[in-house]
Amino acid sequence: MLKPVLGATAFFALCADTPYRVLPYDRYTVHEVKYTEELCWRGSEEQVLQDLRNKGLTVAKESERYYPLTSNYSELYYQVKRGDSAAWQPIPYSADLIIYVKQKQYDPNYVIAEYNFEGQIFKNIRFRITTDSDNKKIICVKMISFDSGITKYETYPDRKTRKSFKPYFENLFGIKRK
Questions:
Q1: Which of 34, 68, 146, 148 would bridge with 125, disulfide CB 3.0–4.6 Å?
Q2: The pTM is what?
Q3: How far apart are CA 21 and CA 44, in angstroms?
């Protein structure tokens, strides 16, 4: 009976994305919208990146990301003297003090700084490029999120709203509808 409990405890303690480890920080910032669509077509990663740059867009590789700690997590302390386990001071919470958690990305993301299409402005568009395991000529862009810059959209949009975004991102990556 003890082995399964220890195994489950070790699994959740070591996984970086378990709720217990990500509890103190938000995965998405104030105006960030989670958009997890996948667009696939024939091509290569280099071709996708070059096409975006040819459109005058700035594309950066993101291997680590910083998340702000949530204000409802009040048990934050700092060590006064290195190696002294008794000298801990609470970090006072104030609106001026923002603390971030750094998280490495296992598969680096790409970020497009800004994209304007038909008056709709999207900022910090995060996506990942993968290849189809069966057919190496098929490239897939897995969308992660974008910053709307306005409070018009919810962080986790409904299906209808997600579907309305698709033409914007198909145009961004040059996908022609049939």
A1: 146
A2: 0.69
A3: 35
Answer whether residue 35 shows pLDDT above 80: yes
Element (H, E) at 165: helix 159-172
3-state secondary structure (DSSP) of residue 129: strand
The C-alpha atoms of residue 107 and residue 64 are separated, in whole angstroms, by: 10
Interior angle at CA 52, CA 50 and CA 55, nearest 5: 110
Burial of 60 (0-12, 13-18, 19+ CB in 10 A): exposed
pLDDT at 147: 87
Residue 130: name the closest of 119, 144, 150, 112 by CA: 144
How far apart CA 47 and CA 53 sit, in angstroms, is: 10
In order of their start, the domains of the chain are: 24-66+102-172 (3.30.530)
Separation CA 77–CA 149 (nearest Å): 33
